[in-house]
Amino acid sequence: MASPLHLLSLSRVIFLLATFFHFIAINSTSSSVQPFCHDKESSALMQFKQSFSIKKSASGDPSAYPKVASWKQPEGEGSNSSSSSDCCSWDGITCHGDTGHVIGLDLSNSRLYGSINSSSSLFHLVHLRRLNLADNDFNHSQIPPAVGLLSRLTHLNLSFSAFDGQIPLEISQLNKIVSLDLSENPLLKLQKPGLATLVQNLTDLKELHLSEVNISSVVPEFLAGFSSLTCLRLRDCGLHGAFPADIFKLPNLQFLNVAINPDLSGYFPEFHRRSPLKSLKLGITSFSGQLPNSIGNLDSLNYLDVQGPIPESVSQLVNIQMFHIAGNNLTGRVKLDVFTMTNLFDLALSYNRLTFLSSTNYTKTTLPTLYHLELASCNLTKFPDFLRYQDG
């Protein structure tokens, strides 16, 4: 028969276990419940929605649809008990799991049409971390300086959205930004402030997209010190001066595009095997010198658009998929070995005076299957032999 002391100890153990499992159950339940969004933020979102009309032509993406169409106005006090009126459940909205604050707004490809300014209720959403308004039509509005109020932003995408005028200095104060995309807004300009002033404090940048923005400046040397940078796209920006060669050596850079900047000069450095570069686009620039043989070290490269003489070492780029050297005015003989990478499907050689040296050893299994081929104005007198192995 168990002693009273033993029974007391057993009861205490059972009590402690019950308390422990009750604590676990409470915390598990509370952590799985998503808090409702805040009334002020819900109201701000509805005001933002109502400031625009829906226009099919406002978005270029064929899959675009008006995300705000599903948003429903709360009908009074306590209405947040309805999931349909809880803004955390609305299309394009992300809320913080603990606080319920709106931290993400993705209205890309939403067919929004209308103007936006600093009085917009958008800027009441001060907890936003991600804001994506890409592929809408903001009717030549300027980017509102009030964007600087969104000091927690880490991702800002306003691309393809018909913005106009000077990019506001306030963006330079968003020092938590890791991804900034203002590209494909050809009426935007970046002059006062210029490129250097805009990004000098954004030292955590991983992605910078400013293609087709009127920058008309040099590329600042200090960008070569942005060690987190994985993507730099400055195509068709009116860049001039010398491109800092050390940018090629950034340890995490995967995508570099400064094409269609005819006044941008520079040279190619030696490339090492540890380089993570996947895409290198430098066509229609004033880069000089020959592409070094070490280009063959770029094992991850799958897109190459350059100008100047092409070394045979490019045949070592086994992962290359797109290879563009169109418009280089190259002359001389080209061995077909250079273009036998099996993953290659897009080859552009137009506007070069080339003679192809083919081999009788090629078969359909040793040559790539091309889906896109440009040979315009190449001074050809006959089609290259390798075309016989293409399916058409």
The helix count comes to: 3
Low-confidence stretches: 77-81
Helix content: 10-25%
Kindly provide the radius of gyration, computed on alpha-carbon positions and rounded to a whole number of angstroms. Answer: 28 Å
| Alpha-beta classification | alpha/beta
Distance between the termini: 92 Å
Number of strands: 22
Please report which band the strand proportion falls in: under 5%, 5-15%, 15-25%, 25-35%, 35-45% or over 45%: 15-25%
Mean pLDDT: 86
Structural account:
The model is unreliable at 77-81 (pLDDT under 50). A 13-stranded mixed sheet has the order 2-3-5-6-8-10-11-13-15-17-18-20-22, with no helix packed on it. Strands 12-14-16 form a 3-stranded parallel sheet, with no helix packed on it. The protein is 12% helix and 19% strand. It has a domain at 321-392. It is α/β, with parallel strands linked by helices. The radius of gyration is 28 Å and the shape is elongated. It is built from 3 helices and 22 strands.
Features:
single chain; 392 residues; alpha/beta; 13-stranded mixed sheet; 3-stranded parallel sheet; 3 helices; 19% strand; elongated
Write a concise synopsis of the structure shown.
The protein has 392 residues and is an alpha/beta fold. The chain has three helices and 22 strands. 34% of the residues are buried.
